[in-house]
Amino acid sequence: MRYVGHGVLIAVALAIAVGGVVELLTGWIHPWERVRVLRPVPHGVGQILTGSGLCCFFGVGAFTPTGDALRVLLAVSAGLFVAGIVLVGVSRLPDR
User: Fold this and answer.
1) Distance between CA atoms of 9 and 21, rounded to whole angstroms?
2) Residue 96: helix, strand or coil by DSSP?
3) What superkingdom heads the lineage (predicted)?
4) Cβ distance 46 to 40 under 8 Å?
5) C-alpha torsion 65→8→3→57, nearest 10
6) Do 73 and 56 touch, CB atoms closer than 8 A?
7) Which domain holds residue 20?
8) Banded model confidence at residue 67, pLDDT cuts 50, 70, 90
9) For the chain, how big is the Rg over CA atoms in Å?
10) What burial class does residue 54 get, using C-beta atoms within 10 Å of its C-beta: 0-12 exposed, 13-18 middle, 19+ buried?
11) Is 39 a domain residue?
């Protein structure tokens, strides 16, 4: 049952990343975010990084590596997630 839950969470994380790829390729933004997003490129890259970080984190939780690999993968996933969240926040700031 644990793997089913992790599979669902990984699918959600991949959906976030795919949404970022679609946004970069076509310029399409989710309807509920169109009002707030002022810069679509950082928003798309932020979604890709956020989805990748979450996918890495949930993958670590599903397969539980041992030793230093656990710390390294958790640090990488946290870095990707934080960088993505920062870019999503930057995409909502007005231009100068």
Assistant:
1) 19
2) coil
3) Bacteria
4) no
5) 10
6) yes
7) 2-90
8) confident
9) 15
10) buried
11) yes
**What residues have CB less than 8 Å from 55, skipping those under 6 apart?**
10, 13, 14, 17
The tally of domains found in the chain comes to 1
| 95 domain residue, yes or no | no
Contact 90, 39 (CB under 8 A): yes
Residue 96 lies in a domain: no
Report the C-alpha gap between 39 and 27 in whole angstroms: 10
Question: Residue 49's pLDDT is what?
Answer: 97
Structure-token match 């100068």, residue found: 96
Residues in the chain: 96
- Tokens found for residue 67: 């030793």
Residue 60 has a pLDDT of 85
* pTM of the shown model: 0.89
Supply 81's token pair: 């997630």
The label of the residue with tokens 């969240």 reads: 85
Residue 34 domain-assigned (yes or no): yes
**Which one-letter amino acid corresponds to residue 10?**
I
